[in-house]
Amino acid sequence: MRRLYLPLLGLMLGVAIGLVIEFRVPASYARYLSIAVLAALVSTFGGLRALLEKKFNDWLFITGFLSNTILAALITFLGDRLGVNLYLAATVAFGVRLFQHLAAIRRRVLR
Amino acid sequence: MELGTREEEPLAAGAARPPGRSRRLLGWGLLLTLALLGFLLVLQARSQQMLGGLDLQARSVDELGGLIGTLSQEVERLQDEATDLKSQLAARESLFHSDTALTSQEELNLEALELVTGRRSGRGPGVVLEISDEQGKLTPFEFEAMVSELRSSGAEAIVIDGTRVEFDSFFGTAGDKLTLNGRELEPPYIVQAVGDQDDLVSSLELPGGLLSNLRALPGVKAPLYREDRIVVPARDQDDLVFEYARRAEN
Q1: Could you read off the pLDDT of A2-42 as tens digits, one per residue?
Q2: B64–chain A Cβ distance below 8 A for any pair
Q3: How far is it, in rounded angstroms, from Cα B238 to Cα B200?
Q4: pTM of this structure
Q5: What is the ipTM of this complex?
C-alpha cells in the first residue's frame, strides 16, 4: 500500500491545481472532455486492479492512461466528423470495462 | 474498441521492474498521471456545472423535443421582449431629438424676440441714408412712409439718429422739430437700415419710390450709402410691460 501514496498525492495535487486555475472547457468540447475523463477513470481503476493482482507496471499504466484518454477524445471527435455516434460506443465500452475493474477490485479486497 | 487497459496483460510483478533512477522517474510519471486525472475530474465537474447539469445525452427523444419546444417558446418570448424594448428605445430617442430640436427652435425664437423687442443690441450690414432738410419740408408723415418703405424693402432693423425704430415707435413734432418717441431729431437725419444691401438699394432707388419722392421735395438731399456694420442699440427704455394686452390662450 505504500505505493499508493505517490499517486494519491498526485491526485490531490491535480485537484488542487484544477481548483486554483480558473480554466473552463468550451461547451462544444465538453463531450470530448467527458469521454476523456471516463477513459482516465477506467485506466486508473485498471491500474488499481493490476496493483491488487500484483501485475502493476508503472510504464504500462502511464502510457495506457495517456493513450486511452487522448484516443477516447480523438475517436469521439472522429465519430462526430463521420456522423457515427462513437461517443456512445466509447461510453459503453469504457462503462463495461469500469465495472469489470471494480468487480475484480471488490473480489480481490474481499478475499 | 481495444482502448481498454493493457495492464491486464500478464506482467509478473517486478519482472521487468527497472531499477534505480528510472524507477524514481516512473514514480514521478505516476504522480503526474494521477495529477492529470485529478485535474480532468475537476475540469469535467466544472464544465458540467457550467452546462447547468443538462446532460442531453441521457435524455429521451420525447424529452428533448419537449425541451426544444420550451426553449423555442422562451427564445420567442425574449425576442418579442427585445423587439419591444428596441421600439421603446427608438421612440424615446426620437422624442429626445424632437425635444432638443424644439429647444434650438425656441432659442432662435428667443433671439429673434430679443432683437425685435430691443432687449439686446444688434448689428449687421445695411444701408445708410443721410437726409438733409434745409427748408424744413419733412413731416412725420414722410418718416412714417420712409419706415414703411424700408420695412417692405426687407429692413430688419431701423435706426434714426441713434434711436431704434420699434414696433411702438411714433413720430411727432415738437415746435418746428421732428421727434421720434418724443425725442427731438436733428437734421441731417441719419437713417440706418439693417438688411440685404442689394435689395434695399434697388427698391429704395426705384423710380417713383421713396428716394425719388424725398428728393422731389425742395431743399431735401438724401444720399444713400452701403454700410457693412450697422449697430442697432438696445431699447433705451425700461423692460416692456403690457398693462392691458394679454396673451390669448389657445
Answers
A1: 667 888 888 899 999 988 988 877 777 888 888 999 999 99
A2: no
A3: 31
A4: 0.44
A5: 0.84
